[in-house]
Amino acid sequence: MFDRAEFVRGAHQPDQFPRHTFPEVAFSGRSNVGKSSLINMLLGRKKLARISKKPGRTKSINFYRIDDRFCLVDLPGYGYAGVPAEEQEKWAYLIEDYLHHRKNLKGIIQIVDARHEPSEDDYLMMDWLASAELNFLIAATKCDKLKKSRLKPQRKMIADRMGISLEKVLLTSARKRQGKKRLETFIKEVTGI
Ligand code: GDP
Fold first, then answer.
1. Which residue of 26, 34, 96, 98 pairs with 141 in a disulfide if CB–CB is 3.0 to 4.6 A?
2. Does residue 180's CB lie within 6 angstroms of at least one atom of ligand 1?
3. Which of 190, 186, 32, 16 is nearest to 97 (CA)?
4. Nearest CA owner, ligand 1 atom 8
């Protein structure tokens, strides 16, 4: 459904956010959760977001213009144990500023691992999303790694732990290309494209 993706810029600080009128949808999640793979699945390409070998390296917010209709925003992955506290603080400042002040931002796709309980940083992100009153969808990814019988209980566990309704949690898999339609619908709904 989405076709042309153009890199706009990477921002390391708020004054580098692009000045444009496109609505934005941001993707967030801890390092290595499968964020790049999910973005690539959505855009039907092998390589837009670089799939990193070293977790936690991308610390800029990356903006991509999609079909001249909306902007996909790749937020830097968080929670990698090897990252020094100073880096983590920079990350928190940048993301919080973006989430709370960015007028273009219309919705967030927050990615978690379908196999695990949400991390402390996942909860922190949820708090920010709630306080910024943003539209969001939780994509519980890598669900191909779960036995079929575990899918429903894991989805419910994630919704319960995060204190949100079940409909807000979508089971996805980049490997099985699962969840693409629902992600597209969410983007269309929140951006109005
Ligand atoms: P990022 O750091 O969040 O952008 O994560 P990546 O997209 O780079 O993925 C991290 C690792 O998880 C890579 O080895 C991927 O091949 C693997 N991965 C990502 N998505 C899936 C998925 O849906 N299923 C499975 N089984 N593995 C996945």
1. 34
2. no
3. 16
4. 51
pLDDT of residue 46: 67
CB 60 within 8 A of CB 10: yes
Q: What is the mean pLDDT of residues 29-45?
A: 92
Whether 67 contacts 4, CB under 8 Å: yes
Of 31, 39, 51, the residue with max ligand 1 atoms within 8 A of its CB, to mutate for a pocket test, comes to 51
Q: Where are the domains of the chain?
A: 5-191
Q: Is the CB of 29 under 6 A from ligand 1?
A: yes
Distance between CA atoms of residues 60 and 79, nearest Å: 15
Q: Measured between alpha carbons, how far is 12 from 191 in angstroms, rounded to an integer?
A: 25
Q: Is there an atom of ligand 1 within 6 Å of 178 CB?
A: no
- 182 burial (CB, 10 Å; 0-12 / 13-18 / 19+) is middle
Residue 150 — left, alpha, or beta (φ > 0 → left; ψ -120 to 50 → alpha)?
alpha
Q: Which atom of ligand 1 is nearest to the CA of 51?
A: 8
Query: Distance from the CA of 63 to the center of ligand 1, in angstroms?
Result: 20
ipTM above 0.95? yes
For 99, residues 6+ apart whose C-beta sits below 8 A from its C-beta are 26, 105, 108, 128, 129, 132, 134
Closest of 172, 144, 145, 154 to residue 39, by C-alpha:
172
pTM of the model: 0.94
